[in-house]
Structures are given as structure tokens and as C-alpha cells.
Amino acid sequence: MANGKDKAVGAAAFSLAVTVFVYYTTWALIMPFVDEDHTLHNYFPPDEYRIRIPLLILVVGLTVIFSFLALVMIKSKSKKTKKAN
């Protein structure tokens, strides 16, 4: 069962995820249609990072996933060879 601390951590993680989603969606989908001299552009990074940041997150995430899978497969193979001997 979830206690109060688990619920608080879950609520904080959910709030952070929603905040990041709304910020990035606003930056990527709405800001291209706002005039360049508008003050809202001061709250967002330069335009080239719209692609660079998600691409970096994707590359790092895939690297972590495939590294984990490689380690699991190596350990599984070493267990099978030990069993065979």
C-alpha cells in the first residue's frame, strides 16, 4: 500500500512532468507563431535547442537501455556457461 510519502513523491513527479510537458509544448508549438520581439521569447532558449534537447535525451536514453540489455545478456550467458560446466 502507498503511504503518505509515496503519494507526495508521486504527486511531485507528476507535477514536474506536467510542467515540463507544458513548457516544452509551448516552446515548440506556440512560440514559432509569436513575434520575435515579443517579451515571451525571453523565457525560452534559442530555437535550435528545440531539436537538440530531445535528440540528446533520446540518444542518452537509448544508450542506457541498450547498455542495460547488453549487461543482462552478458550475465545470462555467463550463468549458462557456469551451469554447463
TrEMBL record:
It is found in: Endoplasmic reticulum membrane. GO terms for molecular function: enzyme regulator activity. Pfam families: DPM2 (PF07297). One of its GO terms (biological process) is GPI anchor biosynthetic process. One of its GO terms (cellular component) is endoplasmic reticulum membrane. The chain crosses the membrane at residues 12-33, 53-74. The keyword Ion transport does not apply. InterPro entries: DPM2. Belongs to the DPM2 family. Component of the dolichol-phosphate mannose (DPM) synthase complex. This is Dolichol phosphate-mannose biosynthesis regulatory protein. It comes from Umbelopsis ramanniana AG.
